[in-house]
Amino acid sequence: MRTGISETLLRWLCGDRTSSAAVPICVALLSTLVSSAALLALGHDPVTAMAAFLRGSGLMPKPSYAGGQSMLTDFMSYLGILAPMMLASLSVIFCLKAGMFNIGVSGQMLAAGFLATALVGYAKLPSGAARPLVVLIGAAVGGLMGAAVGYLKYLFNIHEVVSCIMINHITSYVTGFFIDTRYVDVITRSSRACSASSRLTIAGVRMGGVRAAIPLGILIAITAVFVVRFLMERTTAGFGIKIVGLNRDAARYAGVPVGRSYVFAMSIGGALAGLAGVTYYLGYYNSIVPKALPSLGYDAIAVALLGNLSPPAAVFSSMLVTIFQKGGVYMSSVTGAPREIASVVIALLLLFSACGAYIRERARSALGKRGGG
Amino acid sequence: MASSEYIVEFRGVTKKFPGITANDDISIGIRRGEIFALLGENGAGKSTLMSMLYGMYEPDAGDIFIRGERVALSSPSAATALGIGMVHQHFRLVPSYTIAENIVLGMEPVKKAAELFPYVDIGAASKRIRDLSKTYGLEVDPALRIEQVGVSTQQRVEILKMLYRDAEILIFDEPTSVLTPREIEFLMDVMRGLRESGRTIVLITHKLEEIKSIADRVAVLRRGKLAAILPASASAQEMADLTVGRPVSLSPSSSSLRARFRDVVLQVENLSVRGENGLDAVKGVSFSIRGGEIFAIAGVSGNGQIELADAIAGLVPPCGGRILLNGRNVTSDGVGRRTEAGVSYIPEDRQRYGLVLDFTVAENLAIKKYRRAPYSKSGILNRSAFRTEAEAMIARYDIRASGGAGTIARFMSGGNQQKTIIARELSTDSSLMIFVQPTRGLDVGAIENIHRRMLGERDKGRAILLVSLELDEVMGLADTIGVLYGGRLLKIFPADRTTVGEVGEYMMGAAS
Amino acid sequence: MDVMDVMDAIPADGLSFAMPLLIMAIGGIYCERGGVLMLALEGLQGFGAFTGALSVVLCLPLLGAGSPCLVYIAMAGAMIGGMSFSLLHALLCVRFKAQQVISGMVINTLAMALTTFLTSVVNEALTSQVSNRFQIGASERFTLPILSRIPIFGGFFRNMYPFELVILAVAFVSWHVLYKTRFGLRLRACGENPHSLDAAGGNVGRTRVIAIMICGALAGLGGIFVAYSVSANFSPSIYMGYGYMAIAAMIFGNWKISPTFAVCMFFGLTKSAGYQICLWLGMTSNYTDLLLVIPYVVTLVLLVFFSKRNQPPRALGDPFDKGKR
pTM of the full predicted structure? Predict the structure, then answer.
């Protein structure tokens, strides 16, 4: 009987159909186990801690809530930060499909968020005009920045990692300068809050007796998942990008415009990052800290890789990672464990997912030995 | 107990790879000081067997004895320590290193500067390399970088690498496939010299004439099994029959129809192309190909053939001259527009250029035409057309893929990968087809199939440019032969008015 | 402010910025010349800085604050820390044949998470205070006696941190190791054509693991030098993109040591020059920030002219598989 069970397990891990689901589940279980062990070693109850992550993200009810708040409040807030994470990871995925490593998501987010804030956030426009304008500016600014990186590679063979890093720093200093000199709020040292009509979050909505902020960003993010998937699977441009990403020489041989594919992939990737920027700075937050690149731009790389570069899987990996990021504060306040353990859990997730291919191979060889013997 | 009659002995050696038994219970003994040939088709298991002798794989069953002792050859360094050396078919050289650096790699003589800083003593190594090359007539300049020298010199470097390590058992894997007839003669002399100095040579080959001219004995492998061990004096017909497993005809295949030439399809005028190293790889080449004509470019590897084919296909822009296709100037068009204009291209490196290995067969069949109907309409792909088109082509071109149109190209055999490319290229209605080394690494059956298709396309009136390093293939198929040497087209012959010897002379640049 | 002060401060500050960058980039060169992608410099330098600072904090009560041994303890701690952490990259890339980009991001994420977490845990245990930084102070500066009197260039030799000399020595030794020694020859062969080394009897896996470990040790040193000089403490703010800048310098330097040295000096000097000129002109800090953009913009412009001939190691990013040809 025992061999029967373990064999089923192995088959499940390395089967053609099942392994794409089985390996990530295995990875998630492994990292939960290891981080639970770490929590235990520090003298905290892992079950309480794991539940607290979920409670902090509004996926499980807390024992008590402040006045006018409920699980819904937390959940809406969770969705608010989930949206930029999804968009940013989609950006990384789309660029990687063309073989471009977009490490410039942070800069693209910051530039898009800043320009949308400066151009629309302080203008007195009705929400019907302001919100679409914010989205448009976000996508356009990010898209142009991405396209610039693509062109630099196309025309001058400049490695995208280098140009992205340079542009990140430039963006951070230049936006910092303008925020500090023109838009600063002297008390918070960040940029002044944007008008409610331009924000991509409808704040203070009453629902069933509680107040919640409805994040519009999540709608953009979900739409983006479908758009990206459609672009990649159903369009000639997406097919060309995949050829370029998988085998650049074959792309040249087949007459796929390699340079233009770089520019196209980076513009779409940049536009997605720009959307992540506006949903981050004008959605979840309401202001910009000067000279700080959002760490979410780097986390998104991890999330994209955790999702094995597939847009639907990236939805799940974003959700998972965001649970730990969002629920970290509450977990810390409940258990007294340091907040940073949340990032350790995320890092472990990424670590084990990097071993995914190895796990599959081991399962296959274990099964092969059994079959032979 | 091992008999000391043999310097190398395989006993019941078996090696399996996923899905294939490469070597099945093989027992062979090789005597000291002989030239022992291994004959067989591609995929018969010759290279696998020798890779085990060189420690690159370990056998799944059976034993290997060296000088009468059972040995475990777990790595090339273990084999090197036992005096075994190997010249691989694909040379194992670092292009940016000098010849001396390549030879000493793994066996570096180390000295200390100021009693403190160890360094590799390239000077001493170069001296020893010069001595060795004088002794065995293998002339090289140790200071040149590999990327600066031709293939035959690279092969000399590989041989010197073995001699530098004092190897006594020398394995040559298909050493003549990249050489001209005269270079082959030269190599044979070197091998005879090595035999006289007491060394044992194992020669992997699929060419009967090489065995007849140099080997002492020959083992024939067929589909992983040992078919026979014969003295080299056995008849060529017997060896050929054993190789294939049925009686075969040794005369090359030829077309049933006589070629009927039509209008000029491709006209190349004074074409010059710059190579990767920045020098002109093709220098002022002019020729034309008519419909219904196979124009073969003969020449030794690295004389500008690839650059010429790439330039005609539109992969690299020429730095001078014109290319006319059906009378239209296409010199400044890219690959895409030339494909539209009617150029098909079967590249030399199938896996690098011809295929996206992680794509399915259906996707690979579409990578040149996906922007047009039926694959797509106004930018939107039609996935079901991918499948139906692929299924039709799989049937028509006899592509064997376990999962049909959805098989990932990486998991197909080399022959079926090549068939996939050929299916894609032939299924367009091109007026010009460029074949570069179309049969390299394929077995006899697949080669026959491809030659038949090429002749069939010619008879349909298409113009065919064939680039091949195999002189037999050139002589057997071409209507017209052009010899490329040092980037220049030295001579153009009608195929029926020349001989192998004459073409070979031009391949060496002799008549220039 | 005096012009002479400015002329002095530019090279001194420039060096203190450029040298840690250089040692990390050299670490990256070792790794990528061996054919293994190295995106983990940021994480390795942070982890090295952490273990270095931790060893100082742990030894401080034993040796007293003024002890000259502390610098060496910090360096040893950082090298060991960076090296051990890099073993994870080696395990993932060489043994598990994982995607090397992923592995790099794993190291970065894990290093940042672990060090921040462990710092607060250790601080709580040692001082029962909640803090995410180790105070370690800055090392003393010194002036080289004769060289500092050379006109114009003398500024490079005044107010130096001791570690700057260490890094220059490392750069010289690394140049010798990479281009003159047996290890260097084999290492670069791994990055160009690993099959050549394998066929010649070398061990590709082992060579690559050693390269990764050297890279970890050097990146760790770079981290502790930043912590021990400019910032005078270890805190999560050590992750401010130095590692990524070093990667940029390495690629700009075409994976070679001397051009990379030039690139790092260029970064450092333009950065400090911009800063000092602002101070001299009495501009507000806002404008200083704007001038800090200059090195990045100039780098981009220079790349336009210098990138055409950029040639990464041929086998970079390929997990070595014996069976494949």
Answer: 0.85
